[in-house]
Amino acid sequence: MFDRRRFLTSALAAPLAYAAGSFVPAWAQNAPNLGTPTLPSPGFRRMKLGDVEIVSLIDGIARRPLGEEFVKNAPIAEVRALLASQGLPTEYIDIPFTPFLVVAGNRRVLMDTGLGDWGGPTTGKLLENLRAAGFAPTDIDTVLITHYHGDHINGLRNRAGEFVFSRAKVMVPAPEHAFWMDDARLAAAPEAMKGAFNNARRTFAQMPAEMLVRFEPGTEVAPGIKSVAAFGHTPGHTLFELSSGGQTFSYVGDLTNVPALFARNPDWAVTFDMDAEAARKTRRAVFERVVASNAMVGGFHFPFPAFGRAVAQGNGYAFQPVA
Questions:
Q1: 4-311: which CATH topology?
Q2: Is the pTM of this model over 0.85?
């Protein structure tokens, strides 16, 4: 069972520092002297699933140094060795940000929103890629939010404070909303965490009641789309499973920030997981389920096009992107 007292203690110590004076997670900025990540072109990819279409829409990529803190419970030498064995750089980590659009009949459902106006120069590309794929922000009727970290919610409002998806219902996990909007938790949070709390308030506090819809994880949030509790990364982190024509697509949000590390070693803890033990158990359970069902899987931080299959490998799993 999820231990909320232990969660709060660990959450308040989690390294989710925000850049001073802004709402941008410090880790969402490119690191100096490490080069610039190359963004895919085009920045969208379509996939059919039964009777619906799924479009991955990359918001950008951030490059950060690979330090001792990134994997909290593994020696840096082991982390670098695993990356090297897959032909990946060992001095830095590239973190993509990829929302997904579900096109089902006349429905347009967006899953997460990226950094919007609040990121670095290699982020904030969601609207550009949405338009390139043939859609306008006003076409979106529903936005599903997995959790309240800035790279998932900042695209909801621009710097002028306007709602980017002005015609959409914004559906959020009730336990996630309750955590970040709680005055007592904000007051008790260390300074490094207050930016994340205030960012959630900037985004949601003035959102009209008819726009903001809270749901309980485990319920259906749109026709054919079920929410799935996946607590640990944050207190209300929630996944979404889409079923159509006998096929399943599982959008796993931040189940793993870097699948080359945390799918291959599900027991490793990324620095962004607020309750590492709950996240570990969730990660193993979800991967076991999607592999057993042969579901198509998509992840917010997976390498573009960010959807493919997960297969068992060694003590963990490997992500195989679609060609």
A1: Metallo-beta-lactamase; Chain A (3.60.15)
A2: yes
Q: What is the pLDDT of residue 27?
A: 59
Q: Is the dihedral of CA 148, 154, 156, 159 positive or negative?
A: positive
DSSP letter for 31, please. P
At 166, give phi and psi (nearest 5°): -70, -20
Q: Report the alpha-carbon distance of residue 280 to residue 244 in Å, rounded.
A: 29
Polymer length of the chain? 323
End-to-end CA distance of the chain: 39
If one counts every other C-beta atom within 10 angstroms of the C-beta of residue 308, the result is: 20
Q: What are phi and psi of 254, to 5 degrees?
A: -105, 35
Contact residues for 142 (Cβ-Cβ < 8 A; gap 6+):
107, 108, 109, 110, 168, 169, 171, 221, 222
DSSP state of 36: -
Q: Find where tokens 């096929």 sit.
A: 247
The Cα-based distances of 16 to 23, 136, 153 in angstroms read 11, 32, 15
Mean pLDDT is lowest, of 4-13, 68-77, 303-312, for 4-13
Q: Is 85 helix (H, G, I), strand (E, B) or coil?
A: helix
User: What tens digit of pLDDT does each residue of 202-231 get?
Assistant: 999 999 999 999 999 999 999 999 999 999
Residue spans per domain, the chain: 4-311
